[in-house]
């Protein structure tokens, strides 16, 4: 089992009422599995940050590994490392 810290920011924090949390996942779990776990724990995120299929984040929402590196859609089937901190972020564009 691996322990992953989840940090909620912005809308995710407002919706969940939490700043951080620790989850335990299997050694083979992917980032996509983490999204499914979060959908189960926080169903209010579905349709707001998490897609209806509970397997992906909605457009403009993403994880940042240790607050430094974005987890892109193509990376969602990869496996996180034990002790990673995933920050739930919303990408804002404009000008």
Walk me through the structure.
The protein has 95 residues and is an alpha+beta fold. The protein has one domain: Roll (Ubiquitin-like (UB roll)). It is 19% helix and 28% strand. The protein has 2 helices and 5 strands. It has helices spanning 10-16, 31-41; strands at residues 2-8, 20-25, 61-65, 69-71, 85-90. It has a 5-stranded mixed sheet with strand order 2-1-5-3-4. Strand 3 and strand 4 (69-71) form a beta hairpin. The longest helix has 11 residues, at 31-41. The protein is globular, with a radius of gyration of 12 Å. The termini are far apart. The mean pLDDT is 93.
- In the CATH scheme, the class would be Alpha Beta
Number of strands: 5
CATH-scheme architecture: Roll
Using the coordinates shown, work out and report the CATH topology: Ubiquitin-like (UB roll)
Rough outline:
globular
Mean pLDDT: 93
Oligomeric status: single chain
Structural class: alpha+beta
Order of helices and strands: EHEHEEE
- Span of the ends, CA to CA: 44 Å
> What is the CATH H-level superfamily?
Beta-grasp domain
């Amino acid at each position: 089992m691996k322990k992953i810290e989840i940090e909620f920011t912005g809308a995710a924090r407002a919706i969940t009422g939490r700043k951080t949390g620790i989850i335990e996942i299997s050694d083979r779990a992917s980032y996509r599995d983490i999204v499914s776990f979060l959908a189960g724990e926080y169903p209010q995120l579905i349709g707001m940050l998490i897609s209806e299929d509970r397997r992906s984040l909605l457009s403009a929402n993403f994880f940042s590994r240790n607050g430094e590196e974005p987890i892109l859609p193509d990376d969602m089937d990869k496996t996180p490392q034990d002790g990673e901190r995933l920050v739930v972020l919303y990408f804002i564009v404009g000008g």
